[in-house]
Design a protein that fits this description.
There is one protein chain. It contains eight helices and six strands, in the order ααβββαβββααααα. With about 270 residues, the protein is an alpha/beta fold. It has a six-stranded mixed beta sheet, sandwiched between helices. Strand 2 (about 65-70) and strand 3 (about 75-80) form a beta hairpin. Helix 1 (about 15-20) crosses helix 7 (about 205-220).
């Protein structure tokens, strides 16, 4: 009997991109995006399928997935393992960049495409009772002193149809009470390593079966495991260096403070 290979974690941004941006896996990403956006997608094109080499000191944020759907919607999909307390700021910057890079000088504003940023986080981020939160730019409620009766039965609510955020918080999903097993729930079983849920999802969704086959193929490849381990080690070394630098700075500041206080005491004794 062949030894069962331990699956690499799909929550790692490198493995995440290897599965969802794998050549021939466009249908896997399409199904996943349909589950998140809750709409049918005819086709999805991965705009950055290449895996950028990981070098010492390089930011892991390079391993995102950029895609475009058949209706022209642009997407930036990010897997975030560690809470660096800047998710909202990073998401805003990513979305702003997506918008500004679309139009060149002289282009008509009507060419602008909808931009969506999707964050999948391995930590709780929002004070919301939902594991999947959708954010859009909306108008505030009309204030009484600014009300003008224009006869509108229903007012516009969306201030811009070109901006959208999605936050998927994995720890929250783990606490979800058993309910209707949606397509997004199926995908969440993969990210939370819910083996019973994965078995059920594979039976109900061929794209999830395809994703797991890809993950198994990558996990069984010694070169892929070595690359994954080297990325983890490089990240560990980077964090260790940052910690050591911080501690060294604290010691130096303490030494200078003590020296200054010593000099002040000497001056007082004269």
């Amino acid at each position: 009997m062949a030894e069962k290979i331990e699956r690499l974690p799909i929550t790692d941004d490198y493995i995440f991109k290897r599965v969802f941006a794998y050549e021939g896996n466009e249908s896997v990403l399409k199904d996943f995006l349909e589950a998140i956006l809750k709409k049918d997608i005819k086709e999805v094109q991965i705009k950055n399928p290449e895996i950028i080499p990981y070098e010492k000191g390089e930011k892991r944020g390079l391993l995102d997935i950029k895609a475009e759907t058949d209706d022209g919607t642009l997407l930036d999909i990010e897997m975030q393992m560690e809470n660096k307390e800047n998710t909202e700021e990073r998401g805003t910057q990513y979305l702003g960049k997506m918008i500004t890079e679309q139009l060149k000088v002289g282009d008509q504003y009507t060419k602008l495409k909808k931009s969506i940023v999707i964050f999948i986080t391995n930590y709780n981020l929002l004070k919301r009772n939902s594991y999947h939160s959708v954010g859009r730019m909306k108008f505030d409620e009309t204030e009484e002193e600014e009300y003008v009766n224009m006869g509108y039965k229903e007012e516009d609510k969306i201030a811009s149809k070109y901006i959208e955020f999605h936050y998927i918080e994995l720890p929250k999903y783990k606490k979800k009470e058993p309910a209707k097993f949606t397509k997004l729930d199926q995908w969440m079983c993969i990210f939370t390593q819910n083996e019973e849920g994965i078995d059920m999802a594979e039976r109900e969704n061929k794209e999830i079966k395809k994703a797991m086959n890809t993950l198994d193929f990558i996990s069984a490849d010694p070169k892929e495991r070595e690359r994954h381990n080297s990325i983890i080690m490089a990240e560990y070394n980077r964090l260790t260096s940052e910690h050591n630098f911080f501690e060294a700075g604290k010691k130096e500041r303490k030494r200078r403070t003590e020296k200054k206080m010593g000099l002040e005491r000497q001056q007082e004794n004269y």
